[in-house]
Amino acid sequence: MKTHILPAVTMIASVLILASCGQSAAPSSETADSASDEMRAGADAAGIVKVAQYEFDAENGRRLFVDEGCVICHSVNGVGGTAAYSLDKETFLSEIDPIHFAARMWRGAPEMIKLQEIELGYQINLNAQEIADLAAFAGNPDEQRKLDISQVPEDLRNSFLNDFVWVTAEFPGGLEEEQD
Fold it and tell me: Taking the domains of the chain in order of start, what are their residue ranges?
């Protein structure tokens, strides 16, 4: 199911936040100047930045949730690990805001990256459209109800993490305050 939710301003901000995940060095002034030039190049005479529009595809988000390995730590519709917060629509108090969704990912990025590298052997790399689709899936109870265990490959099923790692000594700087 495809829907238009928000202007892509939210997605660009999300991508910029997530793109810096795992980078240890601060950007050089040359990089910052280049980014500023790119932003100015896309601005109109009033300085308003023109941005692309994204379609939010919850069905593709469901596929990504499994294929990218999110299901190892997160659950939806009772399917998946419980090492991290459930992404069931019922856990969100209002409609999905992609900026809030990306901010939640950002706050958990260090722990998620560690777990991805341990459990998957690599860090998941999502583009803006994929983040939009995952946000759409997280906010769509109809699409979430379609997820069942048979859609998860057996090797991933055997990798579900069920210890809530965000509040253990293993990740002391974790997401204890995440459920706000």
Answer: 2-167
